[in-house]
Amino acid sequence: MISQWISPDRNLALELVRTTEAAAMAAARWMGRGDKIGADQAAVDAMRSVLDGVEMDGTVIIGEGEKDEAPMLYNGERIGNGQPPHTDIAVDPIDGTTLTADGGAGAIAVIAVAEKGSMYDPGPAVYMEKIAVGPEGAGIVDIRLPIEKNLTALAKAKRMDVRNLNAMVLDRPRHADIIAEIRETGARITLIRDGDVAGAIATAWPDSGIDILFGIGGTPEGVISAAALRCMGGDLQGRLWPRDDEERNALIDAGYDVDKIVGLDDLVGTDNCFFAATGVTSGPLLRGIHFGADRITTQSLVMRGRSGTTRLIEGRHRPDKFD
């Protein structure tokens, strides 16, 4: 039970943003170098070094998978200085490792934290079918409905013509039918190579130009996105998407209902949650890292669910202190 633990009662996000800033600055050094493993490792190492000093007793629920010989933020790892509050942690040191390695747009470093026992553990499920919207679409869309009905309902709620809506979709062969259905409605489409955390958040971010996100993406990204959208008043629904019969059977054996629709209350079951993200490469959500002669500039989003506060923070860091 969550009540047996000391819960967060301060704005942890203002401390957590230091971890995403560190990860983003480290990863940005690898931008365009064609080495996504190197970029990811640099981000992990930088994030861990800061996380170890944060006052919390956290357990990684969404991380890098099972522990191996390399140091990484793995599922089940204890994070923080070991002092209360007790928390669940979902982390992606780089959402968009390939984007970073290729010099593409929209890579971010992200972390979400919530009361212990409140975050959804997707188990062996790697992918999830998702639909995400901002506050105007919360309670309006339904992942079980045809795309045309969801777009029509969202357009009505936002007092827009369907043709003016902009739907974001990961550019994958598995989304050919989704893309065709969106085009049939006359709505516009933004295709992205990677980074559906940023895409989900963009649906709730003013002036992003993104109204809704459709498609199948990672389950870890689904949980992280849910934490952000819970803070912003948006909505996300998901449904586990087994890649094959072996994965489906593993989920069923583990007690998962693969047909169940999971919403914000399932993915992050408390308003006592926090989110921080820092841009690695510039995209529609955040500016990327800028290296100057006398400063390194970062841009970050910091959110707290309990107060519903979202902050856009620009940081200026001395290069000699970073190195």
Textual characterization of the structure:
The protein has 323 residues and is α+β, with helices and mostly antiparallel strands. It is 30% helix and 26% strand. The protein has 10 helices and 13 strands. It has helices spanning 13-28, 36-51, 97-102, 147-157, 176-185, 196-202, 219-232, 245-253, 264-267, 319-322; strands spanning 57-62, 78-79, 86-95, 108-115, 127-133, 166-170, 188-192, 212-218, 235-240, 273-279, 290-291, 296-304, 309-317. Strands 1, 2, 3, 4, 10, 11, 12 and 13 form an 8-stranded mixed β-sheet that branches. Strands 7-6-8-5-9 form a 5-stranded mixed β-sheet, with helices on both faces. Strand 11 (290-291) and strand 12 (296-304) form a beta hairpin. It starts with 12 loop residues before the first helix and ends with a helix.
Task: Give the CA-based shape.
Answer: globular
Percent strand: 25-35%
What is the mean pLDDT?
A: 92
Q: H/E order of the elements?
A: HHEEEHEEHEHEHEHEHHEEEEH
Q: What share of residues is helical? A: 25-40%
Number of helices: 10
Radius of gyration: 19 Å
Structural class: alpha+beta
Largest sheet geometry: 8 strands, mixed
Question: Which ranges are low-confidence, i.e. pLDDT below 50, for 5 or more consecutive residues?
Answer: 67-71
* Extended strand count: 13
Terminal residue distance: 43 Å
Keywords:
single chain, 323 residues, alpha+beta, 8-stranded mixed beta sheet, 5-stranded mixed beta sheet, 10 helices, globular
Draw up the topology in text:
Layout: H1 13-28, H2 36-51, E1 57-62, E2 78-79, E3 86-95, H3 97-102, E4 108-115, E5 127-133, H4 147-157, E6 166-170, H5 176-185, E7 188-192, H6 196-202, E8 212-218, H7 219-232, E9 235-240, H8 245-253, H9 264-267, E10 273-279, E11 290-291, E12 296-304, E13 309-317, H10 319-322
Helix pairs in contact: 1-2, 6-7
